[in-house]
């Protein structure tokens, strides 16, 4: 009977050590631990879900964002914001991936917008209009030509909820051969989106 108890305790100890670690998104510092779970423990991502529209002149930029719980990535699991995009100038639609919002990819970061970078107000880029403890997001946006950083802050626009977004494309614009790469489809810069009902 004593041996059976020892075996039972040994199995419990092994199973406890074999469990994947859960890491709070706010504490994540980029160390990808195989089979870990990056959890949105404070539900920071929830406030960013929805459909948002930016309009300026003849430009219409629409994004749809949704939160995924414990989405599989190549090496670990993670709570994520994913999204899709529609970008029009005048009557010309330059990009429309909105129908793919509910597509389930093996790697969910393959959506046009994806990520879970929770930024405190003291983190780069600077946020002079952030209040103490305000949470922003750093996501990636892919417009079929370039991947870019997509920094998102919640805001109010004429008493309506919205997003203040800064899009920044990284990387060279010129190939080694000297030919110039085309510009991103979605222009870099600041955008103010209004949440749609």
SSE layout and pairing:
Layout: H1 2-18, E1 22-24, E2 37-39, E3 50-56, E4 59-72, E5 77-89, E6 92-96, E7 113-119, E8 136-142, E9 147-157, E10 160-169, E11 189-195
Parallel strand pairs: 1-2, 2-5
Antiparallel strand pairs: 3-4, 3-11, 4-5, 5-6, 5-7, 7-8, 8-9, 9-10, 10-11
Give the structure's gist in a few sentences.
By secondary structure, the protein is mainly beta.
Description:
The chain is mainly beta. The protein has one helix and eleven strands. Strands 3-4-5-7-8-9-10-11 form an eight-stranded antiparallel beta barrel. A hairpin with a 4-residue loop joins β4 (59-72) and β5. The longest helix is centred in the N-terminal third of the chain and has 17 residues, at 2-18. The model is unreliable at 6-18 (pLDDT under 50).
The main sheet comes to: 8 strands, antiparallel, barrel
Q: What's the Cα radius of gyration?
A: 21 Å
Count of discrete alpha- or pi-helical segments spanning 4 or more residues: 1
Tally of strands: 11
pLDDT averaged over residues: 86
Query: Portion of residues in helices?
Result: under 10%
Shape: globular
Portion of residues in beta strands equals 35-45%
Content-based structural category? mainly beta
Report the uncertain regions.
6-18
Distance between the termini: 65 Å
Q: Helix-strand pattern, N to C?
A: HEEEEEEEEEEE
* Widest sheet: strand ordering: 3-4-5-7-8-9-10-11
């Amino acid at each position: 009977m004593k041996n059976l108890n020892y075996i039972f305790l040994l199995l419990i100890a092994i199973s406890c050590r074999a469990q994947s670690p859960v890491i709070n998104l706010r504490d994540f510092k980029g160390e990808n631990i195989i089979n870990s779970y990056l959890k949105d423990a404070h539900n920071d991502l929830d406030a960013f879900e929805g459909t948002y529209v930016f309009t300026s002149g003849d430009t219409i930029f629409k994004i749809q964002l949704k939160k995924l719980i414990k989405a599989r990535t190549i090496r670990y699991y993670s709570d994520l914001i994913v999204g899709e995009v529609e970008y029009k100038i005048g009557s010309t639609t330059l990009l429309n991936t909105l129908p793919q919002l509910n597509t389930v990819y093996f790697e969910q970061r393959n959506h046009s917008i994806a990520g879970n970078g929770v930024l405190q107000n003291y983190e780069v880029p600077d946020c002079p209009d952030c209040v103490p403890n305000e949470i922003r997001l750093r996501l990636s946006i892919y417009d079929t030509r370039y991947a870019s950083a997509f920094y998102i802050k919640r805001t109010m626009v004429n008493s309506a909820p919205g997003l203040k977004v800064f899009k920044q494309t990284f990387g060279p614009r010129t190939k080694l051969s000297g030919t110039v790469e085309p510009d991103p489809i979605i222009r870099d810069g600041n955008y103010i989106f209004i949440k749609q009902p």
